[in-house]
Design brief:
about 120 residues; 5 helices; mainly alpha
Length: about 120
Amino acid sequence: MKKSYSVRKVEKILRELGASRHSLAYLTSVQGTSALPLRKEQLLKNRLRYLSRTIEAVEHSLAFLDPVEQKIITGLYFDAEPSIERVCEACAMEKSSVYRHRARALEKLAVALFGE
């Protein structure tokens, strides 16, 4: 089954947020320091605002998922070392079931985030 544009967009956002967790801490720590050139500081502030708004929207959207779907999405996108095997073990499911739940969860997130 081909993924819709909104589902691909949600996957991109989730991957970006998962990868940005560490950079968010860095951005927060350097904000307002005089060691940065003014342009770079403004870019960092803009990035921090974008990430904060996106995180807030995704956290709100995760509330639309059932607990198993939440565990799958967080395990596949937000864990320090995402692993399908760990998610399968944590949820006591086969890979095919995890992928099916992930697809359903991504569809729900797409609707919650984009209304599509």
